[in-house]
Structure formats: structure tokens, C-alpha cells
Specification:
Layout: E1 2-3, E2 6-7, H1 10-14, E3 22-28, E4 36-44, E5 47-56, H2 64-84, E6 97-98, E7 107-108, E8 114-119, E9 124-125, H3 133-149, H4 168-181, H5 191-199, H6 206-212, E10 219-221, E11 230-233, E12 239-242, E13 249-251, H7 253-264, H8 282-295, H9 301-305, H10 307-328, H11 340-357, H12 359-371
Helix pairs in contact: 3-7, 3-8, 4-10, 7-8, 7-10, 8-12, 10-11
Length: 372
């Protein structure tokens, strides 16, 4: 078994965790850009059981123990809230950390790799591209529900696992620095993309300005609300479990909504090269807004005002991150081909344009959802 050229002795890793049964094997699982994920099979008294094993990318998450501290606190709190609400199958509705044999939430091997294990959620799956309006509604509702369940998480404040993760002015400065340094001599090839950002630079600090004024509050947010971070039930299609909790930390609720709009309304894959296929699907925006607002009753008036804007902002920011990584030599996101990050960047910028063109229609749909 290998990933990115690294070979791991999975048997030696999994035996460190309190997993039941005899180890059978591990296969790559999912389509995440950051961590290496494996579905692990055990044989327990003649029945196959599964766990999810992940190698945490400690080049990005510099403090894996802080990441796991957040995850343990969040998942324990969510399960407690669900149990209090008499929700059935609680372990299907929240990730469950499998601790190591010495009672730790993660394990560091002799090569410095950090590993964690979860119970595998059976009978549900994730989707990279939304296939229908029901999926859009269910994913949005699941994320709003997740925020609701964490609204009363007691102190202390969660760790910021990646400082300034959605701080768009900071991301803008990072892009500008990458353009200036131009370590790979790529800036000459992306002048239109650089100009695209410069034209919209004034929008980067808008939400944080309103936060600084006390108009938009800090909340506990997921910060990576793609469709494929919600597991949907195979039988009913309902949102079952929010996953990929590495970036759960203090943030703005609008970041989560904006990233949902960015990813779930896209008519084409994130790395589509044919930009004529890339657009914001207004027909998917409506169920996202309806699903999210059906649960996100905590939003204040200022947050509601910025829902549509947040989609444009987060999409611009993600495009800036892909462009920055391209200029720096593709050191952050996993890539599968030359120019992969640039393809992703161009797709995001096309999505921004599509959102700009449909902003009035999006605002009308939000108002209709708020009236319900």
C-alpha cells in the first residue's frame, strides 16, 4: 500500500489503536486534497468491520495534538447533544474517535507520521459533485445543524488549527508576496488571474470589517463545507454525518455558508479545464439557502445580509489560494498534473464571475427563504 510514494506498514499502525478484530487490510478512501485516508478492514469473529484511518498532514496542521483536542471536544459535545435529543444511532451522526491503546487520540510513528482512527460510518457516502437538489438541501441543513449543536460548547476557546485560515486580507497579502517572489518564474503566465484579483481586492476585508465593528459575531464553524464533507444516507439521502473536522475552530458562520455555495452550486468539477462548463447553478443555490436557513436560526440580521456576498468572497479566496500555491510551486494542495492548481484557480474565478452575474437572483431567493 502506498500514497504519494510513501509506504506504510499498516499492521504496525493499526495495532496501536483500540480496534476490535484481526487486521485484514487497508485501501485508499475518499478524495481529500490534504490528508491520506484509508478504509481499514478487520475480521471480528467472522464478520468484517471497518474503521477509517488517516495520516494527518503535519506539514499543514503543524500541531496535530491541538487538532485532535478540538476534534475530541467537538465530537463528544455533538454526541452528548444528540443523545439528549434522543437521536437514534448517535455514532452514525457524529465522528467517533478511536483512541490508541495508551488512551491518546492520535499516534506518531517512528518516521514522524501522525495517525488517527475513527469508526467507519456504514450505509452512507460522500459525493464530489451534487447530483440533485435534495443533496444540496441535505448537505446545507447538516452543516447548519452542526453549527447549532456546537453553539453551546463550553470554554475554553477552540484552537486555531490553521491561523488566519479564512482571513481573506491575509490570503491576499500571501498572493501578492508570491507574485513578488515568483520563485518558479510562473507569474508571467498568470497576469490575467493576478489582474482579476486586483480588481476585486477591496472586497477582501468586508466581512472582517463588520466583525471588528461587532456586527458579525465569532462562532464555531467547520471552515471546509464542501459537499463531500457531509455523508448522505444510502437509503434515504438524508445528511447523516459531518466529517473532515481538522479545521473546526472559531470563525464566521458566513465562511461556512459561502464555501457551501462555492462548492455545491458548481456545475463542473473544481479542476475543470473547459471554463465554458463552469457556472454557478442558481437552481442549486435555492435548496442550499433553504436547507441552511431551516436550521441556522441563530443568524443575526448582519449575517443574513451577507449570505450572498459570502459565496463570492469565499470563492475568490479559494481561487487566490490555488493561485498562490501554483506560484509557490504546488507545495500545499495535492496535484495530479502540471498546472493543476492553475486549472483550479481559473475555475474558481469563473465561478466568481457567474455569481456576480446572478447576484440579484440569489438575493431574491434568500429573502424568500427568510420569509418562510
Amino acid at each position: 500500500m502506498s500514497s504519494g510514494g510513501d509506504k506504510f506498514r499498516f499492521h504496525d499502525v493499526v495495532k496501536r489503536f483500540r480496534a476490535w478484530g484481526d487486521f485484514v487490510g487497508a485501501v485508499p478512501y475518499g478524495s481529500g486534497h490534504i490528508n491520506d485516508t484509508y478504509k481499514v478492514t478487520f475480521n471480528m469473529a467472522g464478520t468484517q468491520v471497518h474503521y477509517l484511518l488517516q495520516r494527518i498532514n503535519h506539514n499543514i496542521f503543524k500541531d496535530p495534538r491541538a487538532v485532535m483536542d478540538n476534534i475530541v471536544r467537538v465530537t463528544n459535545h455533538v454526541r452528548a447533544r444528540l443523545t439528549a435529543e434522543n437521536v437514534a444511532d448517535v455514532t452514525r451522526h457524529s465522528l467517533c474517535v478511536v483512541f490508541t491503546r495508551d488512551a491518546q487520540p492520535c499516534y506518531q510513528d517512528a518516521d514522524g507520521n501522525w495517525w488517527r482512527m475513527y469508526l467507519f460510518v456504514e450505509g452512507a457516502q460522500t459525493y464530489d459533485t451534487i447530483q440533485n437538489e435534495r443533496q444540496a438541501f441535505e448537505a446545507a441543513r447538516a452543516y447548519a445543524r452542526f453549527q447549532n449543536l456546537l453553539a453551546d460548547l463550553p470554554a475554553p476557546r477552540l484552537h486555531e488549527t490553521i491561523p488566519h485560515f479564512h482571513n481573506t486580507p491575509v490570503r491576499l497579502k500571501a498572493l501578492q508576496a508570491a507574485v513578488t517572489a515568483d520563485v518558479c518564474n510562473r507569474a508571467v503566465d498568470v497576469r490575467p488571474e493576478i489582474a482579476f484579483v486586483e480588481k476585486r481586492a477591496s472586497m477582501c476585508g468586508h466581512l472582517l470589517d463588520r466583525h471588528a465593528k461587532g456586527e458579525i459575531p465569532e462562532r464555531i464553524t467547520h471552515n471546509d463545507t464542501k459537499l463531500n464533507n457531509v455523508m448522505l444516507d444510502d437509503a434515504t439521502g438524508a445528511g447523516v454525518c459531518v466529517i473532515d473536522l481538522d479545521t473546526v475552530m472559531p470563525g464566521l458562520a458566513l465562511y461556512d455558508f459561502g464555501d457551501m455555495v462555492r462548492s455545491a452550486t458548481a456545475a463542473a468539477p473544481e479542476d475543470e479545464r473547459d471554463l465554458s462548463k463552469v457556472r454557478m447553478r442558481i437552481e442549486m443555490f435555492e435548496p442550499i439557502a433553504r436547507g441552511y436557513l431551516s436550521e441556522a436560526r441563530f443568524l443575526n440580521p448582519a449575517e443574513r445580509e451577507e449570505l450572498v456576498f459570502s459565496g463570492r468572497l469565499i470563492t475568490l479566496m479559494i481561487g487566490m489560494r490555488f493561485l498562490t500555491d501554483y506560484l509557490q510551486g504546488d507545495v500545499y494542495f495535492k496535484t495530479k498534473r502540471p498546472g493543476h492548481n492553475l486549472d483550479r484557480c481559473r475555475g474558481q474565478f469563473r465561478m466568481v464571475e457567474s455569481m456576480e452575474q446572478q447576484a440579484d437572483s440569489m438575493e431574491r431567493l434568500v429573502l424568500e427563504c427568510l420569509k418562510r
